């Protein structure tokens, strides 16, 4: 059985920074379970799709329309092929995916194995988790011990297609954990009842760091929602010494964790600030007190760690005043740079599913436009509030970008 993983067009990215890590995990997991005839195709770097027996696609909401357009092309390549879709959009809105042969909801590894066994007619009834008597929809269960998932198949991709640099060194992404304990209302995780975090062991993480070095990378971006929640964090120092690296932390991070990052020669931290308005943070259940943030920023700078806060403009009840509060807050903490996104109420977020409770309006229902970025200078906004139009929010984004980047 020849299996082709497909990563759809991602026109809203400014550049191809990282390979599609979820597909690299799935590929290595399948290889470890006897499915070795696999290929990973990123349609952002090539438009050549090989003939295969199974096409497995992972898509977010703004990518989803492109996957629908792909279907006819895939059937032309092999009329007898089976199409499988998973990822964020399929997990939240499986009924949108009726044109696909199989749909996977949630974590992909175990469900994909079950799906392939179904295709091969092995243990069909016993091993499939079926909902609503639909044999084409599979519920993916989380793997408790993440070390059961082999290191992602980075050697199967061309690293020259991806350009992300940390202090001038070519870098790639890595995950040492899965899950988040918080329930921000703008996040699709807010719909999940299980708030546990699962971890790879330090031994696994160290081996993966070595594998990343062997692939030619000189830097790593740890994409965990909260990298510092790991126990025995300092045990990773030995493999990170000669690398450039960054991670994501809370804006109210514990100061002793910042000190640990400094000892580990962390180059930069990305901080989920979202807004400099306490009113906005409370509305979206960020569970963050802005009074605790300046001390965290100060400790980062004391430990020679660059600070890169993430903002989300256009959250419910955004106004000229709340954005001015954000600008004033940024001026006070003096970040090294700022990441500025614009709110998109994705399906599955609490805000999307309860729009009537919030001061927010969706202005465009075309999923292809459900992103905030379409290349440098091509920013997009599909929301408005009672006080700000979509155009107002875009203008504020430009102003903040001009001042802080």
Write the layout of secondary structure elements.
Blueprint: E1 3-7, H1 21-32, E2 38-42, E3 54-58, H2 64-77, E4 82-86, H3 88-92, E5 102-106, H4 109-119, H5 124-127, E6 130-131, E7 134-140, E8 165-166, E9 169-174, E10 177-178, E11 198-199, H6 202-214, E12 219-222, H7 237-240, E13 244-249, H8 255-263, E14 268-274, H9 278-283, H10 293-302, E15 306-313, H11 320-333, E16 339-342, H12 350-353, E17 361-362, E18 383-384, H13 390-404
Parallel strand pairs: 1-2, 1-3, 3-4, 4-5, 5-7, 9-12, 12-13, 13-14, 14-15, 15-16
Antiparallel strand pairs: 6-7, 8-9, 10-11, 17-18
Helix pairs in contact: 8-10
> Averaged pLDDT, please?
91
* CATH level 3 topology of the largest domain: TIM Barrel
- CATH architecture designation of the largest domain: Alpha-Beta Barrel
Query: Terminal Cα separation, in Å?
Result: 49 Å
What helical percentage do the residues reach?
A: 25-40%
Please state roughly what percent of the residues sit in beta strands, choosing from under 5%, 5-15%, 15-25%, 25-35%, 35-45% or over 45%.
Answer: 15-25%
Tally of distinct domains: 2
Structural class computed from helices and strand pairing: alpha/beta
Strand order of the largest sheet: 2-1-3-4-5-7-6
Annotated CATH homologous superfamily of the largest domain: Aldolase class I
């Amino acid at each position: 059985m020849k299996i082709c993983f497909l990563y759809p067009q991602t026109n809203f990215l400014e550049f191809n920074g990282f390979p599609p890590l979820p597909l690299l995990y799935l590929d290595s997991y399948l290889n470890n379970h006897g499915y070795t005839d696999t290929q990973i195709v990123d349609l952002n770097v090539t438009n050549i799709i090989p003939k295969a027996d199974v096409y497995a696609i992972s898509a977010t909401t703004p990518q989803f329309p492109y996957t629908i357009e792909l279907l006819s092309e895939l059937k032309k390549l092999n009329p007898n092929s089976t199409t499988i879709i998973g990822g964020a959009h399929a997990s939240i809105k499986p009924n949108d995916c009726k044109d696909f042969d199989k749909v996977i909801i949630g974590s992909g590894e175990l469900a994909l194995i079950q799906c392939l066994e179904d295709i091969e007619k092995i243990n069909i009834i016993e091993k499939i988790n079926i909902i609503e008597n639909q044999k084409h929809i599979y519920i993916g269960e989380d793997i408790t011990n993440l070390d059961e998932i082999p290191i992602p198949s980075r050697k199967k991709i061309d690293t020259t297609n991806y350009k992300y640099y940390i202090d001038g060194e070519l870098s790639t992404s890595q995950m040492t954990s899965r899950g988040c304990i918080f329930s921000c209302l703008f996040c699709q995780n807010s719909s999940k009842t299980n708030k546990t975090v699962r971890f790879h062991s330090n031994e696994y993480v160290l081996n993966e760091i070595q594998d990343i070095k062997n692939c030619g990378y000189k830097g790593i971006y740890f994409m965990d929602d909260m990298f510092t929640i790991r126990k025995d964090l300092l045990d990773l120092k030995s493999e990170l010494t000669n690398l450039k690296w960054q991670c994501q932390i809370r804006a109210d991070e514990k100061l002793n964790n910042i000190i640990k990052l400094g000892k580990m020669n962390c180059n930069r931290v990305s901080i989920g600030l979202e807004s400099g308005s306490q009113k906005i943070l409370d509305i979206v259940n960020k569970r963050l007190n802005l009074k605790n943030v300046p001390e965290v920023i100060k400790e980062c700078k004391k430990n020679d760690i660059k600070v890169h806060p993430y903002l989300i403009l256009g959250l419910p009840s955004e106004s000229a005043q709340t954005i001015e509060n954000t600008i004033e807050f940024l001026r006070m903490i003096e970040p090294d740079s700022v990441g500025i996104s614009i709110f998109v109420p994705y399906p599955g977020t609490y805000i999307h599913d309860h729009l009537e409770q919030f001061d927010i309006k969706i202005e465009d229902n075309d999923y292809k436009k459900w992103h905030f970025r379409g290349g440098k200078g091509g920013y997009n906004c599909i929301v408005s509030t009672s006080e700000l139009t979509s155009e107002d929010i875009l203008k504020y984004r430009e102003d903040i970008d001009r001042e802080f980047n």
